[in-house]
Design goal:
Elements (H helix, E strand, L loop, with lengths): L18 H11 L5 E3 L5 E3 L7 H14 L5 H5 L12 E5 L5 H8 L5 E5 L7 H8 L6 E5 L26 E4 L9 H4 L8 E3 L20 E3 L9 H8 L7 E3 L13 H11 L5 E3 L25 H4 L15 E5 L15 E5 L4 H11 L4 H16 L6 H14 L4 H17 L7 H17 L1
Parallel strand pairs: 3-4, 4-5, 5-6, 6-7, 7-8, 8-9, 9-10, 10-11, 11-12
Antiparallel strand pairs: 1-2
Helix pairs in contact: 1-2, 4-5, 7-8, 10-11, 11-13, 12-13, 13-14
Organism: Apis cerana
InterPro entries: LRR_dom_sf (IPR032675), LRR_Zer-1 (IPR056845), Zyg-11_UBL_adapter (IPR051341)
Pfam family, one: LRR_Zer-1
Length: 448
């Protein structure tokens, strides 16, 4: 992970909008410029028009953002002809598309497909994806885009769910199946390097680890693992290439482990390549030891010298090799406020830097945590304790853009913007930023 100074870039909000952005905005407001509707109101590209992937991929994002309530199936027929339109990396967010549109997209033999908050999709989409999956290396289904059925009985005979041999990244939120069926869900995906099963129902003790031996990143945010934690840890420690592990929780009761120091110690000692670890919302950081004569890890073989250099008992072995990132946001006993933490970047709520790190890490996939982060930012800037106004401005604007329908994020974000802009010197904000701020601070005027 980069240094804090590199996490946010004001460039994306500063300066005039590019010519390409302006063109996309004009086209999205009047799709008749490039297409025509048939008798059933489905759109077809105008004759003689040919679009490369650089245009098609972006066009989808702009259209969905411009008119989220339109019947999107009628728009996606523009891409039905794979000879005059090219798609490679498709991102569909907050859409009412059905499986029919997924079939159209899959016919382009995509490299990357993201389907987030598309509630009308079913497991039929899996068949369409499998039929054209030879180039697919990333598949993401988040939020209400639940394409995995509650039971995988229909897949028992063929022995697999996904036939995507080159898949490297798979993100499936809210997977409803039981732990025993992961043997089918992950069958044939031996090339996976990144797996995200956030908010899924049951992964058991992760005894299907042998199906995904090349994992580099494993995200199990808000997945309950406390009932058989030691067996779970023993299994994931077979994944010796793992560099990032996320077992953070949003509900405090789901993050209470028995023998937390031992569990954390076993994780970091069993995963030698680990550089990034998120244990937010758990008690794995243990209790800060004031009396250094107390043994801090249940089976520790480390000397008191190391105990004096580390205030998180389970991480004593990483004193000489600190983690690049450690997530401690909302963790039990406020470990982010401790002095000696063997990590270069920390997500927590002890100070402005930690909150900004949390905002960056949780921005894309952890809406519930982002609400808390934005609220914490508001509390800091309310009392003018702001030293990184540019990064703060970027973080708040990005969160409000990404979650336009999340009322609480909009309210807290608008309140934070009010104080950030107030602290900025007159004339310091560029015109484009002023336009965005005027739009967002209208929420503040409404709710103040």
């Amino acid at each position: 992970m980069a240094d804090l100074d590199d996490l946010f870039h004001l460039d994306q909000y500063g300066g005039p909008e590019s010519l390409a952005e302006l063109c996309f905005q004009v086209i999205c407001k009047n799709l008749d410029i490039i297409s025509v509707k048939d008798k059933c109101e489905y759109r077809n590209l105008l004759k003689g028009v040919v679009f490369p992937s650089e245009i098609c991929d972006k066009l989808i994002e702009y259209v969905l953002r411009n008119d989220p309530n339109e019947d999107h199936d009628r728009f996606f027929t523009i891409f039905k002809n794979v000879w005059i339109t090219k798609l490679k990396r498709v991102k569909v967010v907050g859409s009412n598309i059905t499986d029919d549109s997924v079939q159209i997209l899959a016919n382009h033999k995509l490299l990357r497909l993201e389907l987030t908050d598309c509630p009308n999709l079913t497991d039929q989409s899996i068949d369409y994806i499998n039929a054209n999956a030879e180039n697919l290396h990333t598949l993401i289904c988040r939020g209400t885009s639940v394409i995995i059925p509650e039971k995988l009985t229909a897949y028992q005979t063929q022995g697999y769910v996904f036939k995507i041999p080159n898949l490297r990244t798979l993100a499936l939120e809210y997977v409803p199946i039981c732990a025993l069926e992961y043997n089918i869900l992950l069958a044939g995906l031996t090339n996976l390097t990144n797996l995200d099963l956030s908010n899924s129902f049951d992964v058991g003790i992760f005894d299907f680890f042998y199906l995904i031996p090349n994992l580099v990143s494993l995200v199990l945010y808000n997945v309950k693992i406390i009932s058989q934690a030691q067996a779970f840890v023993n299994n994931i420690c077979h994944l010796k290439n793992l560099r990032h592990l996320d077992i953070s929780q949003i509900n405090p009761e789901d993050g209470v482990f028995t023998n937390p120091n031992t569990i954390l110690s076993d994780i970091v000692n069993g995963l030698p390549q680990l550089t990034s670890l998120d244990i937010s919302g758990t008690n794995l950081a243990g209790i800060e030891i004031v009396n250094r004569t107390i043994q801090t890890v249940e089976h520790s073989f480390y000397s008191d010298m190391y105990n004096n250099l580390c205030d998180i008992p389970g991480l004593i072995s990483r004193v000489d090799r600190p983690l690049q990132f450690l997530g401690l946001y909302g963790a039990n006993d406020a470990p982010c406020r401790r002095r000696n933490i063997p990590a270069k970047l920390i997500a927590g709520n002890a100070n402005e830097d930690q909150i900004l790190v949390a905002a960056h890490v949780y921005m894309n996939n952890k809406e519930d945590l982002m609400l808390k982060v934005i609220s914490d930012l508001y509390q800091i800037y309310r009392y003018e304790n702001c030293h990184r106004m540019d990064q703060a401005l970027c973080a708040v604007l990005e969160a409000m853009e990404k979650y336009p329908t999340q009322k609480d994020i909009q309210i807290s974000g608008s309140a934070a913007l009010f104080y950030i802009v107030k602290m900025k010197e007159k004339g310091e904000l560029e015109a484009r930023l002023k336009k965005k701020n005027c739009t967002y601070t209208s929420y503040w005027n409404e709710y103040s």
